[in-house]
Amino acid sequence: MYQTKIAGLGKYVPENVVTNxxxxxxxxxxxxxxxxxxGIKERRHIKKGDGNTTxxxxxxxxxxxxxxxxxxxxxxxLIVFATLSPDYYFPGCGVQVQEMLEIATCPALDVxxxxxxxxxxxxVADQFIxxxxxxxxxxxxxxxxxGGLDFTTRGRSVSVIFxxxxxxxxxxxxxHNGQGILSTHxxxxxxxxxxxxxxxxxxxxxxxxxxxxNPQGDDIPYYPYMNGQFVFKNAIxxxxxxxxxxxxxxxxxxxxxxxxxxxxANLRISQFVQQKFKLADDKVYNNIQKYGNTTxxxxxxxxxxxxxxxxxxxxxxxxxxxFGSGFTWGSAIIKW
Length: 336
Ligand code: ACO
Fold this sequence. Notes:
Layout: E1 4-12, E2 17-19, H1 20-24, H2 31-38, E3 42-44, H3 54-69, E4 78-82, H4 93-100, E5 108-111, H5 117-130, E6 136-143, H6 156-159, E7 165-173, E8 180-188, E9 196-197, H7 207-213, E10 225-226, H8 228-249, E11 259-262, H9 267-277, H10 288-291, H11 298-308, E12 317-324, E13 328-335
Parallel strand pairs: 4-5, 4-6, 11-12
Antiparallel strand pairs: 1-7, 2-3, 6-7, 8-13, 9-10, 12-13
Helix pairs in contact: 3-4, 8-9
This protein binds acetyl coenzyme *A.
Acetyl coenzyme *A binds at residues 29, 33-34, 37-38, 115, 156-157, 160-161, 196, 226, 228-229, 231-232, 235, 265-266, 268-269, 293, 323-324.
């Protein structure tokens, strides 16, 4: 069995900054409410005409990751793309990336696991590399949330939280035994699927049916629904469990963690996890204040920033952890 390491990281966020005050001009909300409940001060939104889509932002992040990995795009053996906001209902964004990067016919697949999407995608890539089937796998998490949120007061409890952006990682075969991904841990609990969901358009809620049943109704399936407090309670429990699971699997303890990169769901969730594990401030990386919750993109954006700032370095034990819609959750333990 081979071992997998992260050889290159990249991120891209749209230039357009949207502050809490900007949102308060669109809906009944304010900076104090958003900051207190979520920690978010601003997020990035794609601007009409700026050319950004979920796939194209992923490509921008991927180009940086490929360059930093010191390989050519033609060395990529597989693309795994995580998103809940694809450009098309089908096909997925992975094939768009393959075309935009002009890689010959390498396989591409999309992962639909929302906030846990990047960890699921890393785990998929890790399995292919471990077995020797592929050497270099491009993993991308990218989201265009702003294109599908309700920016009226009706949607405020969801729409203030999410932002757009992309992160990417090149995973490759590690030359040094013991360096790289030590383990990944994945879970789901589909009985809570509708507690954080977007029901339509789908084969159950196709467009003509939505229009016929909800000409102006409030029960609209094409904006995300989130049972916020229920999500919060489940998130803090599952984050803790899956981090512990990863540590135990590798005979590690909390004191071995050099950097925890939690999915940037909500600053209060990250702070709860930090306090529970009694981790110092410099052992947990948060950037939700600047970008909001970018779902599948949040971990690779945060990991890229932490690495760029020298906060993730060779020899470090890095823990990635996520929880989100599905419900799904997961962790990855990495020796950098
Ligand atoms: N601005 C102002 N007021 C608002 C806003 C807003 N943006 N949104 C909701 N409110 C109002 C509500 O209407 C409600 O008013 P009422 O008391 O008059 O009825 C009041 O604020 C309280 O609403 P709650 O929904 O009870 O607020 P809560 O304290 O639960 O905070 C939040 C909402 C932030 C979503 C919280 O439940 C939470 O943090 N949940 C975790 C979910 C999460 O972080 N999800 C992230 C995405 S999922 C993921 O990545 C895992």
